[in-house]
TrEMBL record, chain A:
This is Vacuolar ATPase assembly protein VMA22. It comes from the Eukaryota. GO terms for molecular function: unfolded protein binding. It comes from Trapa natans (Water chestnut). One of its GO terms (biological process) is vacuolar proton-transporting V-type ATPase complex assembly.
Automatic annotation (TrEMBL), chain B:
It is a peripheral membrane protein. The keyword Ion transport applies. V-ATPase is a heteromultimeric enzyme composed of a peripheral catalytic V1 complex (components A to H) attached to an integral membrane V0 proton pore complex (components: a, c, c'', d and e). V-ATPase is a heteromultimeric enzyme made up of two complexes: the ATP-hydrolytic V1 complex and the proton translocation V0 complex. Subunit of the V0 complex of vacuolar(H+)-ATPase (V-ATPase), a multisubunit enzyme composed of a peripheral complex (V1) that hydrolyzes ATP and a membrane integral complex (V0) that translocates protons. V-ATPase is responsible for acidifying and maintaining the pH of intracellular compartments and in some cell types, is targeted to the plasma membrane, where it is responsible for acidifying the extracellular environment. GO terms for cellular component: proton-transporting V-type ATPase, V0 domain; vacuolar membrane. GO terms for molecular function: proton-transporting ATPase activity, rotational mechanism. Keywords: Hydrogen ion transport, Ion transport, Transport. This is V-type proton ATPase subunit. It is found in: Vacuole membrane. Belongs to the V-ATPase V0D/AC39 subunit family.
Length: 210, 351
């Protein structure tokens, strides 16, 4: 009876791992499918911008070859042991890091003042916190807009709204790519766990080798 | 005196007017565009264009074709036609024809200066310049550090020299200064061209005034929309608008303070010719504004051919060809990106 219960628990655990793997595969395929239309829209918007501003104005000849720091970074976090990564690596995007302000200006950063605090608080304190939060968000928003405009300034400072739309499309595509990388990482991790589970089960059935 | 051009125009301008009307007849028709819009690949487009006057320019291009190649070769055809007209023109038609290219010259100057600022190779930049805007000392632009040097070293001997008086500073060239320089030069050029056409008088003055006024108004709208959300101040924006056109001066005052597309619409709808343009757009939308303006421009350019004995036909023909090249570029991009359903978003038919 105890063995049956233990076996059922082990099966349940293995089923859970398989389900996790299948869920992560589904998420990965869904994410990758969503990437193609975003990229298509980005290329189309770029073509619209070239049509609007002129092909001679929006071309690769305008790109800046001077040494300059990247405006967007990809950070990878994973436990490194000797030559290989142990554990599941994860990726995060640090968007619109300006040369003056080394930290990210990403819109995903939520300032602490926006977090809700339980307990009694006066209305004016709440309003002040909210307005501080709004000001912080506005500052981040302004910084992001400034960095976006700076990147597009290689084509001129008065660019068509279509070029800005193209920039947003490619920015979204980059976010989706990083999301896909993270999902893939968890998918591979789930797969390795399922594989390990299967090997353990097989060894358990065969028994120890004399 | 207006009305008596029929007596004397053909002495010097008759032959070239006949030539340009012949060129106008070879513009692509609606059935050409229908065939092109159904192409599956860029090689299909090349095959359809081989039956037109673009054929000789594209026939030697190897596959796979690129959209920029199609635009370059079609532009070469326009340049050849322009040069053949220019070399046979006498004054004042030759000066008029040269005026048509100054806009491209300004774009080339800005491209070279911007590219040099970005440490691009000068030869590479020269290859990307518009062929209609080339001049002898253009490569020397790369050595200038500020506008004063730009003027003193290179541009003083070019037709753009008179336009520099309004924007000469000793400030180093950067992206914002270059953009203001571009728009200030273009403003000065348009005003100069307008004054030149007024001096010519007659049908040329009447027809070109309308076309240039439309160009000035469209520029004002584009500057306004493109500068929304940028660091360009209202005063700086106002200074970039031309001092003529239907919107001058009251429309410009309203446009200078616009903060979004709906305010631009509200300012423009007070003018009946532009009310019809903005009525085609939904509120808050500016994507189709370019197409609406191009359609209106094409209508006015085609009307220029309804009258004889004036120079406006040359300007109209050049602009119609440029529109045709834009159409071909758009169709090629939609075919290359497999977005044929969107091809009619920006194609403007020319009849």
């Amino acid at each position: 009876m105890a063995e049956g219960a233990g076996g059922a628990a082990a099966n349940g655990g293995s089923d859970e791992k398989v389900l996790d793997f299948l869920d992560s595969v589904d998420s990965y395929l869904t994410t990758m499918e969503s990437l193609a239309p975003i990229l298509r829209q980005g290329w189309f918007d770029l073509a619209s911008a070239r049509h609007s501003m002129g092909v001679f104005r929006v071309s690769s000849a305008s790109l800046d070859l001077k040494d300059h720091s990247a405006s967007t970074y990809l950070q990878m976090v994973g436990h490194e042991s000797d030559d290989s990564f142990v554990g599941q690596p994860s990726f995060s995007l640090c968007k619109w890091a300006s040369a003056d302000n080394k930290s990210c200006c990403s819109e995903e950063e939520i300032p602490d003042s926006q977090l809700r605090h339980r307990g009694t608080s006066r209305l004016s304190e709440n309003q002040e916190q909210n307005s501080n939060g709004d000001d912080s968000l506005k500052t981040v928003d302004d910084l992001v807009k400034k960095e976006r405009a700076k990147t597009l300034s290689v084509f001129g400072t008065l660019v068509s709204p279509k070029l800005r739309t193209a920039q947003l499309s490619f920015e979204t595509a980059l976010e989706v790519l990083v999301e896909a990388a993270n999902i893939r990482s968890s998918m591979l991790s789930a797969y390795s766990q399922v594989q390990k589970q299967m090997e353990d089960t097989r060894e358990g059935e065969i028994g120890p080798i004399p | 005196m207006y009305g008596f051009e029929a007596l004397t125009f053909n002495i010097h301008g008759g032959y070239l007017e006949a030539i340009v009307r012949g060129h106008r007849a070879s513009l692509l028709t609606a059935s050409d565009y229908n065939n092109l819009c159904q192409c599956e690949t860029l090689d299909d487009i090349k095959m359809h264009l081989s039956a037109t006057e673009y054929g000789p320019y594209l026939q030697n291009e190897p596959s796979p074709l690129h959209t920029t190649t199609i635009v370059e070769k079609c532009t070469l055809k326009l340049v050849d036609e322009y040069k053949s007209m220019l070399c046979q023109a006498t004054e004042p038609l030759s000066t008029f024809l040269e005026y048509i290219t100054y806009g491209h010259m300004i774009d080339n100057v800005v491209l070279i200066v911007t590219g040099t600022l970005h440490e691009r190779d000068v030869q590479e930049l020269l290859e990307k310049c518009h062929p209609l805007g080339m001049f002898d000392s253009i490569a020397t632009l790369a050595v200038a550090q500020n506008m004063r040097e730009l003027y003193r070293l290179v541009l003083v001997d070019t037709p753009l020299a008179p336009y520099f008086s309004e924007c000469i500073t000793s400030e180093d060239l950067d992206d914002m200064n270059i953009e203001i320089m571009r728009n200030t030069l273009y403003k000065a050029y348009l005003e100069d061209f307008y004054r030149f056409c007024q001096k010519l008088g007659g049908a040329t003055a009447e027809i070109m005034s309308d076309l240039l006024a439309f160009e000035a108004d469209r520029r004002a709208v584009n500057i306004t929309i493109n500068s929304i959300g940028t660091e360009l101040t209202r005063d700086d924006r106002r200074k970039l608008y031309s001092n003529f056109g239907l919107l001058y001066p009251y429309g410009h005052e309203e446009l200078a303070i616009c903060e979004d597309v709906d305010q631009v619409r509200a300012a423009m709808e007070k003018y009946p010719p532009y009310q019809s343009i903005f009525s085609k757009l939904s509120y808050g939308e500016s994507q189709m504004l370019d197409k609406a303006f191009y359609e209106e421009e094409v209508k006015r350019l085609c009307l220029a051919f309804e009258q004889q004995f004036h120079y406006g036909v040359f300007f109209a023909y050049m602009r119609l060809r440029e529109q045709e090249i834009r159409n071909l570029m758009w169709i090629s991009e939609c075919v290359a990106q497999n977005q044929k359903s969107r091809v009619h978003d920006s194609v403007v038919f020319i009849f």
